[in-house]
Amino acid sequence: MRFLILTAFVLGSCGGSGGADFVIDSEIFDGSYSISGTITLPAAVSDKGATLNVARVSAGGGSELVSQRASGSSLTYRISNLPAGSYTVQMRIDVDGNGTFNEAGDYEGYCCGTLAAPITDSAEATEITLTNANLTNQNFGLQ
Q1: Cβ within 8 Å of residue 34, ≥6 positions away
Q2: How many Å from the N-terminal Cα to the C-terminal Cα in the chain?
Q3: pTM for the complete prediction?
Q4: Contact, 110 vs 90, CB < 8 A?
Q5: Cross-strand pairs, 53
Q6: How many CB atoms lie within 10 A of CB 31?
C-alpha cells in the first residue's frame, strides 16, 4: 500500500467559531464525502500540540494530517473531499511540545474508542467506511 503524507500546520487556539476545531479539506483525495465527530480529551492536554490524521486503508492508500493546539475537554473534527472507501482517524497529543509522539505522557487514540476505553493500536482501529453518504458522530477519546 502506498502512503502520501501531507502535513498542514495551523497555529492558534481551537474553537470559538462554531465550526469544527480540526478541519481537513483533502487535497490528495478527490471525493465528495466527509467524516466528522467529537474527540474527548483528557484534562491534562489543555493548550498542547495536537495532530489529527486520516488514513485511507482501502485501494489507493494516502494519508493527511492537520496540527494545531488543543484546548478544552473536547474538540470537533471534519474531514472532507473523501472518495468512497475505508479510513482510520487518529488524534495524537504531544504533551511536552517537543514534536515527538509516543513518548511517556503523550496521548493518542483512534476512532471509535472512548476516553475510558480508547483504541491506541492501529491494528485495532475501527475502519470507517464511506459508501454513498457523509458520516457524522464518529466520536472517540484518547489515552
Answers
A1: 78, 79, 80, 81, 82, 134, 135
A2: 28
A3: 0.80
A4: yes
A5: 65, 90
A6: 14
Residue 140 is placed in which grid cell?
472517540
> b/e per residue, 93-111, with b = 16+ CB within 10 A?
bbbeeeeeeeeeebbbbbb
Among 63, 70, 136, smallest CA distance to 108 is for 70
Residue 13 burial (CB count, 10 A) = 12
143 residues of the chain, pLDDT tens digit each: 333 233 333 323 333 334 568 787 777 778 899 999 999 888 767 778 888 888 888 766 777 667 777 777 888 899 998 989 999 999 998 888 888 888 888 889 999 998 889 999 989 999 999 999 999 999 998 88
C-alpha–C-alpha distance, residues 90 and 111, integer Å:
6
For the beta sheet containing 74-82, the strands, ordered from the edge strand earlier in sequence to the opposite edge, are 22-25, 74-82, 33-40, 140-141
Radius of gyration of the chain from Cα atoms? 14
Which DSSP string do the residues of 91-135 spell out, in sequence order? EEEETT-SS--SSTT-EEEETT--SSS-B--GGGPPPEEESSS-B
Name the one residue in this structure whose C-alpha cell is 511540545: 97
